[in-house]
Amino acid sequence: MAWTLFLAFLYGVGTVLVLPSPQELVLGAVAKAPGWAVILVAVAGRALGAYLLFFAGDRLKHWKRLEAWRAKDRKAQRWALRLERWVNRVGAPALFLFLLIPGFPDTAASYVLALFNRRPWAFALAFACASALRLSLALLGLYYVRGRG
Questions:
Q1: What are the structural domain ranges in the chain?
Q2: Most C-beta atoms within 10 A of its C-beta, which of 4, 21, 128, 137?
């Protein structure tokens, strides 16, 4: 069971950082571990992944090549400025709602939001809360289907 929960945690981190797959796939671990435990470790993994992603985006913002490209290209400057304003205007509540879309692989959008966000804890908390709700609803749906089948 501990190995299953560790893999669920790693999958949670991976879906934020590198895996373009829906987070609901982690619920396959429910066959080997309690549902609440799988959700708990997957949410912790997604929160850690979001926190790490925020700092990766922050470092990427100050990458010399990216700064040079933005300084040289007017369209890139306008695009980045608009995107940054949009991310900071909608903030963590919009990220929370965006992450609630079931079955949606959110890796690419997470990178865009991490690149222009200014609050790492709000970013990670939005990920954790949305993941907890989304996985809980998916698990309830699985139990409902399993009970009727």
A1: 2-148
A2: 128
